[in-house]
User: Which sequence fits this backbone?
């Protein structure tokens, strides 16, 4: 009986830890701006190709979902994740595609992936840190510097 309780407790503990590693993301700029305004945050806009861009996949996994990022920046940033999938099975709605393309036209004219843009709530660009495979903690330090500089 004790071993069953121990296994159940361990399972729940693991689920709790995994849930902590996920940071809330938005796919709509208006929702991200509203959340940012309500929580006195800035916006981290990420242009990514989730099913074809290896650095984008790495950035999401190694940085956005890292404990370093969540622990240090979750309360300071609203994440706006703008996906540009290539595979038909991952195709976005026409509305979401138009939304993402309109923001890319304004903030990612070069078509870089991943492209990370730090915005204030009025959509003023505060910085555009480059992800070049650095560790989550190094990237977090770059973002913290940009947030402090504003």
Assistant:
């Amino acid at each position: 009986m004790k071993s069953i309780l121990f296994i159940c407790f361990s399972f729940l503990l693991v689920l709790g830890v995994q849930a902590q590693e996920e940071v809330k993301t938005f796919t709509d700029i208006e929702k991200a701006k509203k959340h940012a305004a309500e929580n006195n945050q800035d916006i981290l806009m990420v242009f990514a190709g989730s099913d074809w861009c290896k650095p984008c996949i790495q950035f999401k996994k190694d940085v956005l979902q890292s404990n370093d990022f969540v622990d240090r920046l979750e309360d300071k940033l609203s994440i706006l994740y703008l996906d540009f999938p290539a595979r038909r099975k991952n195709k976005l709605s026409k509305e979401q595609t138009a939304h993402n393309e309109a923001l890319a036209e304004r903030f990612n004219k070069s078509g870089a992936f991943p492209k990370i843009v730090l915005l204030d709530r009025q959509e003023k660009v505060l910085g555009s840190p480059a992800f070049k495979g650095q560790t989550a903690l190094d990237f977090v330090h770059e973002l913290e510097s940009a947030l402090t500089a504003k």
User: Anything to note?
Assistant: The domain at 22-145 is CATH 3.40.30.10 (Glutaredoxin). The chain has one domain: 22-145. Strands lie at 25-26, 42-48, 77-83, 115-119, 125-127. The first helix runs from residue 2 to 20.
